[in-house]
Design a protein that fits this description.
Layout lengths: L1 H32 L3 H4 L4 E4 L8 E6 L2 E8 L11 E3 L2 E7 L10 E3 L4 E3 L6 E3 L4 E3 L11 E4 L2 E4 L4 H9 L1
The protein binds FE2/S2 (inorganic) cluster.
Length: 166
């Protein structure tokens, strides 16, 4: 009798362990099926521009590409087709890939230009090619402005207006 109940107990215990193991395995499988949070939000990147000082240039990653965000200073030439105006402030948002062969240009604050080291291409502060082989300006990523925040990946009215005029 005692033998029987001990066997029952071991059976129950093993069954319980299997059940717990099964639940944990299912949990792990579900986790691997669910997209990662970073993937879910990878298509859209929000950038708060309010803290950027004049002349500051930031690079953010959007869909695996570098995106340049420049807060133009008072001396930086305007470009009505490309400037994002927020009150008195002016910004440009550009995909940081050279339109020649895709190298990443670097920003030179002293000359307010983007210079591509690969073949000497130069772009002005608005992303317009001014020298070398790049065949066209730096591309503007789709963006939407919400106050002083821009969301990369969404096509807002300003983006649509820019790309129509460009
Ligand atoms: Fe930039 Fe050629 S890739 S100039």
């Amino acid at each position: 009798m005692e033998q029987h109940s001990r066997r029952d107990f071991i059976g129950w215990a093993l069954g319980g362990i299997s059940a717990v193991g099964g639940v944990l395995a299912l949990g792990a499988m579900k986790k691997s099926w669910d997209p990662l949070p970073s993937v879910q939000s990878a298509g859209f990147v929000s950038v708060d521009l309010s803290g950027m000082k004049e002349g500051e240039m930031h690079t953010v990653q959007w869909r695996g590409k570098p995106v340049f965000i420049l807060h133009k200073s008072a001396e930086t030439p305007s470009n009505d087709k490309r400037d994002i105006r927020i009150g008195e402030k002016r910004f440009v948002v550009l995909i940081g890939l050279c339109t020649h062969l895709g190298c990443i240009p670097s920003y030179e604050a002293s000359s307010q230009t983007f210079k591509c080291a690969c073949h000497g291409g130069v772009f002005d502060a608005s992303g317009i090619q001014t020298f070398g082989p790049p065949p066209r300006p730096l591309d503007i990523p789709p963006f939407k402005r919400n106050g002083e925040t821009i969301v990369l990946g969404e096509e807002g009215a300003e983006y649509q207006k820019m790309t129509k005029k460009a």
